[in-house]
Amino acid sequence: FPFRLFPLREHGMNWRAKPLTCQEIQAFKKSQEVMQRFIRAYQLMLRFYGINLINEETGELKRAENWAERFQNLNRFSHNNLRITRILKCLGEMGYEHYQVHLVKFFLTETLVKETLPNVKRSALDYFLFTVRSKKKRRELVYYAWQHYKPRGSFVWGPHEKLSKYR
Known about the structure:
Order of helices and strands: HHEEHHHHHH
Number of domains: 1
Strand order of the largest sheet: 1-2
């Protein structure tokens, strides 16, 4: 039967691929081999997007050497944003919430601070940000986005009075 590289408990674009069950997720998490393959698949996709995983323990990321070329692809083809959302959700399902935080912050930095991925900005703010399972980390990322969003008055992802008091 069809399988996915980053399976979820929900249907995706391929309706023949069955959603994961909670039991399957638990079985995956218990298998060291499956989890190693999962990380290799994640690294493969990151490289495709021009990103390197520099610390498997923390999930820290940096631009790959070919980032400029790969970022052109990300800016040109919006279907990549759906895949990135799927990867982020799957990271959460598989117990890699800390990886979610690094990937979302990477995209927020590239879209809002460095402005290298203008066509990914909407997805980063509307979708990527809200895949982060940890409410605390999600709040920190919203605050980070608010700090770097221009014009700040147009930021709609959180109440400005609360964001201005957030630490």
